[in-house]
Structure formats: C-alpha cells, structure tokens
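ok so for the tutorial part 2 we go from a plain amino acid sequence to predicted structure tokens. step 1 is just haveing the sequence, like this:
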Amino acid sequence: MEIKIEDLLRKIAELEHQLSKALARIEELEKENKKLKAENAMLKARLGMNSSNSSFPPSSDKFGKKKDKNRSLRKKSGKASGGQIGHKGSTLEKVDNPDFVIELPNEICPHCAANLKDVKVEEVKTRQVFDIPEIKINVTEYQAHLKTCPHCNKKSISEFPENVTHNAQYGANIKGLILNLNVYHCLPYKRLTELLIDVFNLKISEGTIYNTLKTAHTKLEKVENFFKEQLAKSEVAHADETGTKVNGFRRWIHSFSNDKLTVLTSHKNRGKKAIVEAGILPNFHGILSHDCWYAYDCFNVTHALCNAHLLRELNFLEENTELKFPTKVKDILITLKDMIDSGVEIDEKTELDFYLKYMFAVEQGYLEERIHYPLDNTQVGKGKKKRSKAFNLLKRLSRHADVLTFFLERDSSLFTNNDAEREIRNVKIKSKVQGAFRSDLGSEIYCRVRGYIATMKKNGQNQYEALKSIFELCDIMLPVIS
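step 2 — the prediction. this is what the tokens look like for a chain of 482 residues:
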C-alpha cells in the first residue's frame, strides 16, 4: 500500500493540533491544581488557627490536644503553686468585740446528770459566725415647715435638700447599687429587678433603672472631660477598639487608658473620625501603644506596636508555612524582653546589635516571602493584588522603631497592648450576658459609667462608694492625680 506524503503531512498536522490542545489543557490543569493547592493550604491554615497564633479569644479554642500546649509567653517562675512564704493570708479571724453574744450554759453533767448550775466556770470556749443582718429598706422623711410671717403676712417654707426633688424617690445607696450591678456586674434589667425584689423586697421598674443610668451619664460628663484632659497630658497611653451591636447595627467602642485613668467612647465609625471626636489623641504627644490600626498613624505620637499580636501571627506562620524568618524575629523580640524584665544593663553597642539583627531578619523575610509567594500576574481586575499573610506581617514588622519602642524606651510594659484590651474585654462579656445595646445612648451610658468605675478601681477606690457619690450632695469622688 502506497503512503502518500500529503496524507502523512495531514496526519502530522492533526497530531500537532491535538498535541497543542493537550498541552493547553495540561497548562490549564496545572494552573487549577496550583490554585487548589493554595486554597487547600489556606483552609488548612485557617483550621489551625487558635488563640495562640491568631486574634481568636481562648474561648474559641476547640476541645482536644493542641500541637504545643506551651505557647504562652509566660515563663515558669520556679516557685511552688499556691501561697508563697511571707504572703499575707486572708483567713477569717475572730473579732474582739462581736455585735451579739449568745451564752451556752452548762448546767447538767452529760456523764452523771449532776446539777452544775452553781459550779464555777473554768474556761469559756468561743466560736463566731459572720453573717449579713436582715436587709431592710430605711425610709427617711424630710419635713419642710410652712409658716406665715406675723409682720408681712406672707407665707414661707424651709427648703428641701437639693437631691430630694420628688415626693417619693430612691436614695444614693440604691442608685449606686443599680449602677454597680448593671454596668460592672452585667445584670440585665429584668434580672436586676428580680434581685432587688428577692433580696431587698424592693420593687423597681425597668424604667427607673434606665433613668438612674441616664442621670449618672449626665452627671459624669465633666468627670469624663477631666479624665480626657489628664490622659492627653500623660507620657504613655494605650488605645484599642472593638465592635458591638446597637439595635442590630455595628458600633465601635474605643478605649483610651493609662495606669491610672480609663475613658471609653462609643461611635458609629472605627477610624480617624471617631478618634478625633473622642478628643484625646489630637492633644496627646507621648508614647501610644496600639495594635497597628491604621487610624492611629494620623496622629503626632510615638508608636509602640503590640508585640503580643505580632507574636501570634509569627506563631501562625511558623506552624503553617516553611518560612524561617518568623522563628528568628520571635527569638529576637523575646530575648530583648527577657533582658529588660531581668534588669540586664544594655549598652549602646548591644542595643545597636539587636537593632541590626532585627532589621536583617525582616529583610531576609522579604526575600523568603517572594520565593514562597510569588505575585500572581494572572489576577484580573483593578486595584492592588492580594498579598500573603507573611507579606502583610513583614510590612508591619518593617516599622522597626515602632516595634522596638519597648526596648528603646527601656519599658517592657510597652511590649504588649494588654492594658487597653482589658478595658474593652468587658464589652464582650456584657454582650454575652446582657445582649446587644438597644440604643446609641445606651452604649454611651455604658462607656462613661464603665470608664469611671475602671478609673476608680485603678486608684484603689471603693467602686460602690464612688458610684454612690454621683447621687449625693457632696462632690463626685475623683482619683488623686499626681
């Protein structure tokens, strides 16, 4: 059988066409495979997120054994658990002058039934029971005297105290208790009314509770402004924000604090607008510790980034990628903190060496990231191309001075922003126990009263006495500002 050249050429052309289609299909499958691998890695990494390598709270951790249970930055102290030698205990001790004494006479011998009534007492053994007396509401009546002057024949009446404005009203003790139970202990209105009935036999409506909170909010306005002025003058402050719900809509609670003062504000905006309207940071020029939220970069402050956030992200990359820089950066930061905590003297040469090591580790990280996560030029559409978690973290770590502020200022308390996070943690507790806020004013009332309570507790004041002072004739209690 004779094979013509034309047939062979046609057959070759057909095979070449099929081959090109197969190669195109292979290339398409390789791209799809690469995409699926990346997606699979991302999902596996997301499943591996927990409180030690992300911003998830510890309560979100799944049950079961973790890969490494020793992820905490806290070091073992070497001390035995429990109270230490020299620790002042709080054991219940008997008092010298009890309020009541009940004698238990021994008049008959339990052994032979003899009469012991006239026998001399050799020793008195005592035991004391501490208890709350029966709670009873006291009602104080103010009687204003109305008289007619015999000279001018005009009537006059003595004045009631300024805080006695109604025919029947609740006093400062009850109002202070309402604030304490609702704002600090997160008791919802309904449960609060039930408690007051059960314990005090006092029936108070939910409307009265709301009016009490609203009055406190008004009276604490000047106090909050005073706290803001003092915070603006401080050398170091902490800031953070968290989201909450108000009547189904998103609202943001902003925290500004130092070791003596706390101010919480509520706003519909998370960014610069809310921070400016709070009225603290525009006048603050010290060291501000925060978690790298971009809005804080708009202000003239020295930035101290929260290393706890950075370490969690470094943990995530260390556990879920093959990158080497996370371990290097972690070691540098933790070594620095240990040196400062232990009081090791750091000279200029040592400081410069650590600074250069840190910069080199970050630069090496960029090179690693480019190899492991090359830019995908196949992405279509406008805007910036999506970058990896490693790149975004390196971008924050590149703010060398801001990350190492705790080291440069020799103040290891700036290593984290935990002070600010403690202030807003109660917002989440409130949301879980009481539910969301019903109105914007409700969130503002909570923030102002909660900030006042936190400030008084930081200064060693009794929060109940402080809350009572809001409704008394005397001035509202304030912390002593040195």
